[in-house]
From TrEMBL:
Subunit structure: Binds ribosomal protein uS19.
Organism: Leptospira meyeri
Protein name per the record: Ribosome maturation factor RimM
Every Ribosome maturation factor RimM PRC barrel domain range: 105-170
Gene: rimM
Top-level division of the source organism's lineage: Bacteria
Amino acid sequence: MSTKPSLVKVGVIGSSHGIKGFIKVFTEGDTLSSAKPPLTCTVEDPRGNQSTIQIDEIRPNGNHFLLKLKGFETPETVIKYRGFSLLWKRDELPKPNSDEIYTEDLVGLLAISKETNTSLEYVITQVIDNPAHPILELKPKNGEGETVLIPFLHQFVGDWNLESKTLEIIGWEQWFEV
C-alpha cells in the first residue's frame, strides 16, 4: 500500500482573465502543457475543502496558464476559485526526471548533514508554498524542540534519496543562529 498522496498540487489559481471566464493558473512544472482537455480535476480551498471541476481549455500565457472551466462563462463566476490549489491525480502526472521530485515526496524524509552524512534527527513535515521558492518545514523526530524552516534552494539543500528516505541539508548550524 502506497503512503504517497493520491492527489498532487500542480498549481495555484489566480485571478480571472478577460471577459469570457478564463482564469489564471500558476504552476511550477509543465503538467498543464501536456494535459489534453476536456479533463476533470480537483481544486482545494485554503481551508482544505475539495471540489471537482472540468477544464475545457488550457492555454499557455506568459508565466502562467489560462483555464476555461465548464459552466463558467464570465469573470465573476470563476473568481470564486481564486487562491485555490489545483490538484492532479498522481498516476496521471508525468514521471519526474532523475534530478526532479514532486514536493509532496519530500514530506517524511529524514534530514541528514551533507557535510557529515549523519542524521540531524529532524523530519520534513511540510513543504510551504512561497512566491520565491518552496520552504521546507522540519520538526524534531522525537517531537521535542523547535521547528526549522529552510528555503528549498541548492545552496541550502543537497541531494535526496527516496529509497533511504533522506534529504541532505547544507550548513545545518546556520538555521539555529539568531
